Amino acid sequence: MLTYITRRILFSIPVLILSTFFCFAFVSLAGDPRQNLLANPRYSRVHYHMLAHQYHLDVSIPVRYWYWLQDVFTHKLGNSLLTSQPIWPDLTRVMGHTLQVIVIAETIALLLGIAVGIYSAIRQYSFFDYTFTTISFVGFAMPTFWLALLLQIAFTDIYLKWHVRIFYTSGLNSGVTSSTWSLDRLQHIGLPVMTLSIISFAFYSRYMRASMLDVISTDYVRTARAKGLPERKVIMRHVFRNALIPIVTVAALNFGGLLGGAIVTETVFSLDGMGYYFITKLGQLDVYAVMAYLAVTAVFVILFNLIADVLYGYLDPRIRYE
Amino acid sequence: MSEPTVQAEPNRTQIGSAPAAAPSAHDSTVEAGLELKVRSQWTYARMRFLRHRLAMAGLIVLIIVFGAGIFANYIAPYSFEQIDLTNVLHAPTLTGHHIFGTDEIGRDELSRVIYGIRTSEEVGVFVAVVSTFIGLVVGAIAGYFGGWLDNLLMRFTDLVLTLPALVVLLTVAALLGQGNQWRISLILAFFFWTSVARVVRGIFLSLREKEYVEAAKAAGGGDLRIMFRHILPNTLGPIVVSATLAVALAILTEAALSFLGFGIKPPTPSLGVLIANAQNNPQDWWLTVFPGLMIVIIVLAINFIGDGLRDALDPQQRRVRA
C-alpha cells in the first residue's frame, strides 16, 4: 500500500508541473496586468517599468515560470503582482470560508442524498421514487448560477416585502468581522450552502439509488433473503453497507474539486471564498495570485483523488493495489 | 422512470412459437400472418427509441425550442436589440406587447430569449460535432495503433483531470475567448473531445483483437479500411449518445462562462449573457427567470433524448439507470 501511495505521489509531480506551466503561460499571455495601473494619470512611468523588472515581466515565459516556481517554495507562493501583498495569508483566509461552506453543504447533501437514495431503491417506481427522480433530473439540468440567483431574488423579496431577515443574500458578515459560527455568519452562508447542497443532493441521491439497485440484484443478497433474513436486516447489513462504498469515494472526489471553491456560487453571493478569489484575480490578470490558486487547487484535486482510491481499497477488500 | 424497453425480437419469437412454420413452408407462415420481415439493428433501435415516452417528449420539446431558435428572425416579435423606451423594465404581461417583459432599455425579453436560444443551440451543436469528430479520430488511432499516441492521449487526459474543468476553461477563455461566440465554442470543443476519445479508444482496443478483424486483415484489408469499415460502426451507439449529451453540457458550460464574464459578451444574446445582463436589475425577476428556464427546458429535453438513445442503441449495456 505504501509503495502504491508513494508511486502515485511521485507520478503526480510531473503532471502538476506541466498543468501549472500551461496555465501560467495562458494567464501570462492573456494581457498585461499593469494596464489597470496606467489608467491612473498620476501613476509614475518609472514604477511601471520597475514593476516589470521586479516581477520578471520582461523575460520569457519559461524563465518566468522558473522564477515563480522558486517563489512557491521559498516565499509561500510569492506576492500578488498588483498589490505586492503576500498571497499566502489571503489564500488561507478564503480557504477557511470555502471550507466552512462546503463542509456544511456536503454533509447535508450526503446525509439527505443517502437517505433518499436508499428509500427510492427499496420502493423503486413508487410515488416517492418518481418525485425525487424528477427533482434530481431538474437539478441536473439547472445551471448552478441560475439556482443561486433564484434563491437570491426570493430571499431579497422576502426581506423587502415583510422585513424579515432569514438569510443575507451577499457577503460574509454584516459588520467588519464576525466569528466563524456566529448567527450572523450562518445567515450569510445559508444561501450558498443551500445552493450547493441542492445541486450535490440531486447527484448523490441518484448515485446512491443506482448503487443500491446494483447491490440488491447481486447473488449474495438473494442468498441472504433465501436463508430467511428479515428484509430490514438484508437491506441494512448486506445492501446498504456495500452500496455505500462507491458513494464514499465519489464524495471524496467531489470534495476535492469543491475545495477549489464553488466558483459560480461564491461569485453570485460575493462570498469571500476560493472561487470568488480566483475569478476576481483572473479578471485583474494578477498572474501570481491566479497561479497560487491553481497550484493549491491542483494539489487538492490530486490529493483527494488519491484519498478516494485508498479509501476504496480500504472499504472494499476485493480491491488490492499492487 | 421509463417503461421497460422491449428487447425480444417479436418476429423471431412468433416464428419460433408457430410449430407449423418450418423454414421451407414460407407460404404457410404468410397465410398464418407470421410473415418474416428482415429488420436491421437500426430498425430495432429506432423502434426502441420511438417507444421511449420521455425521450419522445424530449424530442418534441427540443424540436419546438430549437425550431424557434433557428427561425428567430420570423418568430421573434421584435429584434433582439430593438429599444422601446416607453416600456422600460416592464413586467411580463399576458395582455400587453411584451409577454416576457422588457429589460432596462426596453428591449423585448421574449425576443431576446428566442435569439438567445439560437446562440446557445449553435454553440451546443458546434461543440458536440467538433469534439465528437476530434475524439473519434484520436480515439480510433490511439486504440487501433496504441503506442506513443495512445500514451500521449492518456497523459493528456490525466493533465486535464488535474484541474477542475471550469477553472481551466476560464483561464483559457480569458486569453483566447475575446467574447466571441465561435472562439468560445472552439475552446469548449477542445476540452470536450477527451471523453469521446476515451470511449472510442476502449472499444477499438477490445475489438482489434477480434476474429473478424483478423479475417478482414487476412482478406487484405488495409488499416484505414478496417478502422472505418469494420470497427467504427461498433462505436456509433455510444458516440451518438455522448454527442447528444455533449450538446447539453456545452450549453450549460457556455452559460456559466458567459455569466462569469469570460464567455460570450454582449451584444450577442446567448442565454447565459441574458442572465448575466439581468444582474444589473436583480429585482426584476423576469430577466433572470425566463432565460434560465429556457436552459433548464433545453437541457432536460436533451438529457431525456440521450437516455432514450442509450436504451435504444445499447440494449445489452442497459444498466440500472443512474
Q: What class do helices, strands and sheet pairing of chain A give?
A: mainly alpha
Q: Any idea what the radius of gyration of chain A is?
A: 24 Å
Order of helices and strands of chain A: HHHHHHHHHHHHH
Uncertain spans of chain B: 1-22, 318-322
Walk me through what this model shows:
- The complex is a heterodimer of chains A (322) and B (322).
- Chain A starts with a helix and ends in a 7-residue tail after the last helix.
- Chain A has helices at residues 2-29, 35-38, 45-54, 61-74, 87-122, 127-141, 144-162, 183-216, 219-226, 231-258, 263-268, 274-284, 287-315.
- Chain A has 13 helices and no strands.
- In chain A, α7 (144-162) crosses α8 (183-216) and α8 (183-216) packs across α10.
- Chain A is mostly helical and 322 residues long.
- Helix content of chain A is 75%, strand content 0%.
- Chain B is mainly α and 322 residues long.
- The radius of gyration of chain B is 25 Å and the shape is flat.
- Chain B starts with 9 loop residues before the first helix and ends in a 9-residue tail after the last helix.
- The model of chain B is unreliable at 1-22 and 318-322 (pLDDT under 50).
- At the A-B interface, α1, α6, α7, α8 and α11 of A face α7, α8, α11, α12 and α13 of B.
What key attributes describe this structure?
heterodimer, A: 322 residues, mainly alpha, 13 helices, 75% helix, B: 322 residues, disordered N terminus, disordered C terminus
What's the structural blueprint in terms of helices and strands?
The complex is a heterodimer of chains A (322) and B (322).
Chain A: H1 2-29, H2 35-38, H3 45-54, H4 61-74, H5 87-122, H6 127-141, H7 144-162, H8 183-216, H9 219-226, H10 231-258, H11 263-268, H12 274-284, H13 287-315
Helix pairs in contact in A: 1-13, 5-6, 5-8, 5-10, 6-8, 7-8, 8-10, 9-10, 10-13, 12-13
Chain B: H1 10-17, H2 26-31, H3 41-51, H4 53-70, H5 72-75, H6 109-145, H7 147-162, H8 165-176, H9 181-207, H10 211-218, H11 223-260, H12 271-278, H13 285-313
Helix pairs in contact in B: 3-13, 4-6, 4-13, 6-7, 6-9, 6-11, 6-12, 6-13, 7-9, 8-9, 9-11, 10-11, 11-12, 11-13, 12-13
